[in-house]
Task: structure prediction
Amino acid sequence: MSRDISDVTRARHGRPVHHWRRNVVELAAVLSAVAVAEAVATLNGHGHGHGPGAPALLLTSAALLVTTAGFHLWRTRRQGHAPPTSDTGARPRSEAQAGPSDQPRETTATVSEEGALWRMRTTVRDEPGSLAALCMALAELRVDILSLQTHPLAEGTVDEFLLRAPGGLAAADLTRAVSAAGGDGTWIERADAHDLVDAPTRVLGLATRTALDAAELPLALRQLLGRCTIRSLPAVPAVGSRRPEPVPVEGALEDTVMRLRAPEGGVITVERPYLPFTPTEFARARALVELDARLGPRVPRGQDVLTLPKGNDITVHRADAGDLQAAKEMHERCSARTLGMRYHGPIGDADRYLNHLLSPRFGRTLAVRTASGRVVGLGHLLWDGDETEIALLVEDAWQRCGIGGELLRRLVAMAVEARCASVYAVTQASNTGMVAAMRGLGLPLDYQIEEGTLVITARLDAPRDEQAPERLSNARELGTA
Result:
């Protein structure tokens, strides 16, 4: 067993495992022993008719074998200390590298210096040697294991790897090798630089962000658990919504779905159809939600004072339930047309949405106040499952002043900071102000008509125009404070 672990370690660091030199030396020793025995037998008169030259021939063969092994060892060490010959600076590879079956495998294309990052999970038997066999299979493919997490199960263990593989190695090659080494239910996806942070550091960072801002909880859960869909259902449903089913205090885990009791009494549902949750992940998510519940509602305090093109000074700040009354008063000053384009329903229900919109549990809200303290604009960034919605409302008397564009840029900056791939806005084709504000972002836009409404989607992971990064960076500080 100790020899197997040593072989795994040597192969991981690019040193091929050669057993044949040891075999050659052992064979030379055997030939020498036979030669000595033959010589003694001849001197005593008990020879077997091999002739007087047989011992000399055996000793010569042994010497040749030892010389060959020594020359190969010298040549290997000299090549190992030679400088790289390729322009990429990659470490030179051996001409023939044998695996466990002693059959040389085909070498792949030249490996880039960085390689490709992969996140991989597989279930192995909980017995000695199973992990060593898995590591050996990865080493044969020249795959470097950057980190490893274990998730114990009732039967077996889920091992989660962060791997750096040769650039030309396909995911199918990795999964085949892992399956042959005893891995079961293997799942793999491309990783990025954010995954290089070790698990304890990442969890502490997410806990810190959650402690500073209640709106971070859904984002923290998504970054903690990977690609998943998170939905928050309030205890008192909004208009047209159903009341969520009760969940135990300790939560509930059912294969690919976990349900947690939200701090305000609702339910947080996390779903990941492609990969079952482990008890370890469930415990981490539950601890994060419990931390959020103990800290209570909170938003970061900070504000920016801006001067509009017409010379008016406004203040932009993060809003919460404390701004509810001022937001209702703004509704009263808005026309029916303005409220209708924002809420797409009966005007009388507009106030009932505010409790949901101003709660940091469901997203982030920015409020615009005048010098006299009136709220004249609201901008919402709402977590909608695995999508993100942007919504704006500007009081009639303050429209066409640049408030909508300012709010929209800040909301998009917050979405970029939250690593959202896109944001969408639901409006009407007649709402030319909203359409113009979305176009002013300088981002690729998709337009769709759904049931008489216009849905504009802005892709955040695509290249922007030259002015867009500067416009977004100006709004980043307040959005992430």
